[in-house]
Amino acid sequence: MKVHHADIVISAVSPAQYPESELPEIALAGRSNVGKSSFINTLIERKNLARTSSKPGKTQTLNFYNIEDVLHFVDVPGYGYAKVSKTERAKWGKMIETYLTQRSQLRAVVSLVDFRHEPSVEDIQMYQFLKYYDIPVIVVATKIDKIPRGKWNKHESMIKKAMAFEKEDAFILFSSVTKDGKQLAWDAIEKAIGYQA
């Protein structure tokens, strides 16, 4: 998809604030510093629609972005950030869970993991949660430019094994630096929303 138009629609914390729209939605979930904002900005070819921050844990709301009037990207708060209080984290958890399990417009979740490391407990829990609720999931492994190509297979196997990855799901290697995986990510998203160019 060529993106000429992308805007933030609303930052919501509860269903009452979700946009009243029938557009299909793709949620983006991942650890605070996994490169979620860079992923969004790379896909839509914008420098800073989704704000990248040196302070992880900045996104504390569900941020809805209108992409080409075709779909919404929904950026959910990054998880696993230590500086946030337990109560705050529990609140986010509830907010994310409510959105993921109750939003009928949701078509799939892009679950971002850091290609360099074993998936965190939260990464694994997120994947299991999505499988449990039968929510289609696209796993995107970010920062592949930081690992020599000769080691990609090893890292991919390590991540898939830790997550008990199911082969019917999409697994995409991605770099916001080299733009590797950008087209594959769009293909998976377009398939999830039933988009025909």
Task: Compile the SSE list and pairings.
Layout: E1 6-12, E2 25-30, H1 36-43, E3 62-67, E4 71-75, H2 86-102, E5 106-114, H3 121-132, E6 137-142, H4 152-163, E7 170-173, H5 182-193
Parallel strand pairs: 2-4, 2-5, 5-6, 6-7
Antiparallel strand pairs: 1-3, 3-4
Strand order of the largest sheet: 1-3-4-2-5-6-7
What is the radius of gyration?
16 Å
SSE string, helix = H, strand = E?
Answer: EEHEEHEHEHEH
Percent of residues in helices:
25-40%
Query: How much of the residues is beta strand, in percent?
Result: 15-25%
* Strand tally: 7
Which geometry do the CA atoms define?
globular
Described by its quaternary structure, the protein is single chain
Query: Overall pLDDT, averaged?
Result: 91
Would you mind describing this structure in some detail?
This protein is 31% helix and 22% strand. It has 197 residues and is an alpha/beta fold. It is globular, with a radius of gyration of 16 Å. It has a seven-stranded mixed sheet with strand order 1-3-4-2-5-6-7, sandwiched between helices.
Outline of the structure:
With 197 residues, this protein is of the alpha/beta class. It contains 5 helices and 7 strands.
Keywords, separated by commas or semicolons:
alpha/beta, seven-stranded mixed sheet, 7 strands
